[in-house]
From TrEMBL:
The keyword Transferase applies. Keywords: Aminotransferase, Pyridoxal phosphate, Transferase. Residues 24-372 form the Aminotransferase class I/classII large domain. InterPro entries: Aminotransferase_I/II_large, Kynurenine-oxoglutarate_AT, PyrdxlP-dep_Trfase, PyrdxlP-dep_Trfase_major, PyrdxlP-dep_Trfase_small. Gene3D superfamilies: Aspartate Aminotransferase, domain 1, Type I PLP-dependent aspartate aminotransferase-like (Major domain). This is Methionine aminotransferase. It comes from Flavobacterium pokkalii. GO terms for molecular function: transaminase activity.
Length: 375
């Protein structure tokens, strides 16, 4: 009997497979197609000849853990203990899975805000927890009254994604304060804050849970070097959490993967000495603005994009099809792949919105936009 009877093939897999079959430009799955920083690849080439190929300590490569602590202090003014409050993970997805496995027990309820990243619910189900999915408003703001009404003595966790995937929305200060008020009323709830796009924000920076004293002592924060440094295939992320939570998370981590790829950890550790994360947002803002300009004469309506490298668009002026069918036809007839937003909802809510990834070189964006403007 399946542990996940209602979970099928991921929409990312479906769309990327179709894109390959039809030789379409793949703006669906969230991965960059431009070269990695040569400084990083040079570090990898050199380190590959050195003694960095055996297991690292379970929690991570010690120099990298120290630099994560330094990065957190520089970025957010938070001092974290490298020994007890940081864990290097095989991507943020493994960190999120491990966190939920460690904290969520049988019949515990976990609040998930829809549209939501597709790994959250399966993780909760595999822990025998109960996913409680609450839809965002149609403008992707959060209805905190609904969130509070869903909280009870069985609620173990609330998951937030900030900046938000798939919508690119950033939580405001008012949002954070309302979340703090809810958690103050329910002191047993743990917050899981997925902040993998933390360094890809535009007009305003996101408010990290790292900066909120009322939240961080009961929160697990997930970050991703793969997203930050355009090396998604390396699958290196990290968690920050208070010692009492991290102690439980490490118990699961040691039997799940034990330790993370040693060469990648050593390379990122060195790279952090020469790169500035402040360069990342301007780089992606230029891509966002360029892609939006290219689509400005199309019939797609551009939704706000405050962070991440995803642009949500409405196709209401083009078609009345449901978003899954529209995305499939976009591939078969126009050779561009996108992701339908309805697949991120529990009830497949369809607002005729789709998502493009603009983490591509300019030539790819130009070629895709030319095809999209002809629709």
């Amino acid at each position: 009997m399946s542990k996940l009877p209602h979970i099928g093939t991921s929409i990312f897999t479906i769309m990327s497979k179709m894109a390959a079959e039809y030789n379409a430009i793949n703006l669906s799955q969230g991965f960059p197609n431009f070269p990695v920083d040569e400084r990083l690849t040079e570090i990898v080439a050199r380190l590959a000849k050195e003694d960095v190929h055996q297991y690292t300590p379970m929690a991570g490569y010690p120099p990298l853990i120290s630099k994560i602590a330094k990065l957190t202090l520089q970025s957010y003014g938070r001092s974290v203990d490298p020994e007890t409050e940081i864990l290097v993970t095989t991507g943020a997805t493994q960190g999120i899975f491990t966190t939920i496995q460690a904290i969520v027990k049988d019949k515990d309820e976990v609040i998930i805000l829809d549209p939501s990243y597709d790994s959250y619910e399966p993780n909760v189900l595999l822990s025998n927890g109960i996913p409680v999915r609450i839809p965002l408003n149609d403008d992707y703001t959060t209805n905190w009254d609904l969130v509070e009404k869903a909280c009870n003595e069985n609620t173990k966790m609330i998951i937030i994604t900030n900046p938000h995937n798939p919508t690119g929305k950033i939580l405001s200060l008012t949002d954070i304060e309302k979340l703090e008020a809810i958690l103050e009323k329910f002191p047993n709830i743990i917050l899981l804050s997925d902040e993998v796009y933390e360094y890809i924000t535009f007009e305003q920076k996101h408010i990290s849970v790292n900066t909120r004293e009322l939240l961080r002592n009961r929160a697990v924060i997930a970050s991703s070097f793969g997203k930050t440094f355009h090396v998604t295939g390396w699958k290196v992320g990290y968690l920050i959490a208070p010692e009492q939570l991290m102690y439980e998370i490490k118990k699961v981590h040691q039997f799940l993967v034990f330790s993370v790829n040693s060469l990648s950890q050593a390379a990122i550790s060195e790279y952090l000495d020469i790169v500035s994360v402040d360069e990342i947002s301007p780089f992606y803002q230029q891509k966002r603005d360029y892609f939006r300009a290219l689509l400005s004469k199309s019939r797609f309506e551009l939704m706000p994009c405050e962070g991440t490298y995803f642009q949500v668009v409405s196709y209401k002026a083009i078609s009345n099809e449901n978003d899954v069918d529209f995305c499939k036809r976009l591939i078969t007839e126009h050779s561009v792949a996108a992701i339908p937003i309805s697949t991120f909802y529990e009830n497949s809510k369809d607002l005729r919105l789709i998502r493009f990834c603009f983490a591509k070189d300019n030539a790819t964006l130009e070629k895709a936009a030319k095809r999209l403007c002809k629709i």
